[in-house]
Fold each of these.
Amino acid sequence: MAERGLSRRRFLGATAALGAVTFFSMTPVSRSIAAALSPTASSLLGFKAVPASTADTVVVPEGYQVERLISWGDPLFTDVAEFSNQLHKNTAANQKRQFGDNNDGMSLFPVDEQTAILAVNNEYTNYELMFEHQGKNMTAADVGYAQAAHGVSVITLAKAKEGWRFDKNGRFNRRIDANTAMRISGPAQGHALLQTNADPKGEAALGTFNNCANGMTPWGTYLTCEENFNGYFGSDAQVDMSPEFSRYGIAAEDAGYSWYKFDSRFDLAKEPNEPNRFGWVVEIDPHNPNSTPVKRTALGRFKHENAELVIAEDGRVVVYLGDDERGEHIYRFVSRNKYNPVDQAANRDLLDDGELFVAKFNEDGSGEWLSLTHGQNGLTAENGFASQADILIHARLAATQVGATTMDRPEWVAVHPHEPMVFCTLTNNKNRGLKDNQPVGGPNPRAENHYGQIVRWVPTAGQHTAKDFQWDLFLMAGNPDIHGGTPYAGSSNITTDNMFNSPDGIGFDQAGRLWIQSDGNYSNQGDFAGQGNNQMLCADPKTGEVRRFLTGPVACEITGLAFTPDQKTLFVGVQHPGEKLVASQFPFGGNSVPRSSVMVITREDGGVIGS
Ligand code: FEO
Ligand code: CA
Ligand code: CA
């Protein structure tokens, strides 16, 4: 990611872009930018839209081509066995050196003209596709195999005549899984709540899992975000759940992974602090396969979606963070020290020291960042926060204490490459309006919201370190064919031709196109009739125009995107095709097991993607 210094001129550009949006009292629908700006033909979007699809394949626009880069189970080294469709033949030992399952967020690190590194999250597993017994007769060996399929895959890419390809001989290839040694760093390092029998000092964790989305730093490191970590813990013993465990969804009952039955580290009765060592952002140096990943506790503990990093005008590092759960929050980290563009080693621990904030959105279109600092805003020992480490370990409870806005499941955050504009997907929230702490209003304007929306904010004076911001809704997803004339039709930039539900992954290319990926209901029925399989769209952030770019195979989610620096190759993730045994044979066809895969998209004429 290039440094994103924000000049005064750039800020004026952003306010001009928002000029048509007025923050006077509006209905939820008309608060959307799309209602204020009439979508017109856009110079940013240069491809022909693809229709909704229910086919078991990836469809891209005319003039584009899509190929498979790598799939779950592909060997990352020359001496490793291939994935077997005879599932009992797959082993933990092989999986530890094969591409992990359920690829999610990813970042590309250019090395030279012919070489690049792609760091890819491997979020979770689908036991119904992984085991012949479909998870019903788990063994210790099965749990070991599942643990090995989680984490991160770092892969070397080489530029061949036919384009960018995975290099099995590449020197950066590495697997990080649920048992890889990691360091715990920052203000919560060593805290009593992070101490376990295996690690009485509370500073050396094992592994990372449920790695959802991602981020990257300008000093060349990868950020992987631990999301639904709670589901891996449990116990067959009687365990009293603390309010803190309950807030994070930790429960004794098996959520389906069964790890605790075979690995005592995940048994709440035996290791009650182990869950506190997950739910963090982990920083990885992908250039050094021997480097130790670091859990950065200053960024708070919650169900992290992604980590969107931008260098503020004054040189401090700002990281925007979403907590993906109904009624949870959006956070911002601001480093104490400044980014040093000429001495990358000096930036190594920038993410250990800074201030964490949580967002409050007001009805009038204003908003503010509330500090999560010990001694401020009621974050005191009397209220249950004895130290800054307490606040970070239980960031959700601290956010409630300071009065943060409860959101419709914050997913990815993306910062515009040239304007101080920040976008966050709020994927859906069936509970909105039904729970006292989740009232309808502000950026969460629809009760029982099955479609989701994208909120946008502009920080005061264009400074990502500012205390305040102005917000609007960039779009509201919906179904105009089913719900015309109601807020569930979506904002006016949503039509029969581009409708979708549940925006999740988002990211900008260098030209400022906003790419939107969906993880929603793919039934193509009822509220979702006409929307087909999950998909990827492209939006012009200034006009509000939205155009469908890609459709995925059956029962998949589209998640993860990365561009090469020349913007002529786009990597896109297809996650869990055929989940829950919905019939899919993607990507290999025949009678093969469906496998999550990273795809490579190029233009037949070699041009810039999306233009
Ligand atoms: Fe892993 Fe919130 O998506
Ligand atoms: Ca996601
Ligand atoms: Ca999701």
Amino acid sequence: MNVNDMKQIGVIGAGQMGGGIAQVAATSGYDVLLVDANRERAETGKGKIERILQKQVGKGKLEAQVAAEILARIMPVAGVDALGHAELVIEAATEEQALKIDLFRRADAAMKPGAILASNTSSISITRLAGQTSRPTQVIGMHFMNPVPLMKLVEIVRGVQTSDETTQLISALALQLGKTVITSKDQPGFVVNRMLVPFLNEACFVLQEGLGSPEDIDLGAKLGLNHPMGPLELADLIGLDTLLSIAEVLHREFGDDKYRPATLLRNLVAAGWYGRKVGRGFYTYDDKGQKTGRAFER
Ligand code: NAD
């Protein structure tokens, strides 16, 4: 297959990453099937994309006609069974290994021979997911960054069995989507999250141990390290549930206590305070995602 043969892309998971991937793919002219656990959630995901595009139209950054064309290319569907015609499926569902294994088995059974099955996972082994399918040479990691339309990087992860052809095709596609590519071996967290997640987790320890306030920690990283966002703000953006899942994978797979997740992070996730996507994490957010204050006092 050549990158120009790709017409239809399936995206599994219509959350913040799946929605972003669908938006970017449709903007580049691909037909997108947007799948979630049920049709209603898939429709909700498309609704969020519509609001993002309308905002751009309102600011004069996008023509109304172009926004309408992008939206018309995104079709919400109820389940993976609808992915039979897609040349590529990108899985971006919740970061849980058992869920992804189930989705990989079902998507593989529905997809046509030769089609590629990619995962946007932040940490789960691509080789393990590939092992659930009849097409391990055509399984690959395609790790977009958040927010997808704004962030330039795609980290491509080769599983043990991923073919050169699949790697070249997915790299070419990422370039067509306007992204820059790095490649990583299949190890927990790959390149980006192997560096980032211990840093964010350490920020949780710094807060938990009372070294500073959330604002001290975030300002420290912004003004002291020249980071565009502080680690607690970034953790809230990523989603604390997702961050904890990645930290648990690093801890479990490497068997090294330096990766143990902070108790504070576990507690916030246990409370359902997942960050910006639910309006509360380390900070609180209004319905436009603007920060409104601290979520808790120590
Ligand atoms: P999210 O919580 O915003 O979205 C997850 C979506 O998966 C939800 O819409 C949920 O309904 C859906 N889902 C759950 N079960 C499903 C099923 N059986 N079938 C179809 N869809 C199902 O999470 P997210 O932040 O979009 O993360 C999704 C993936 O992207 C994860 O693997 C995560 O590690 C990865 N990722 C996240 C970030 C980030 O910053 N959040 C960055 C890069 C990669």
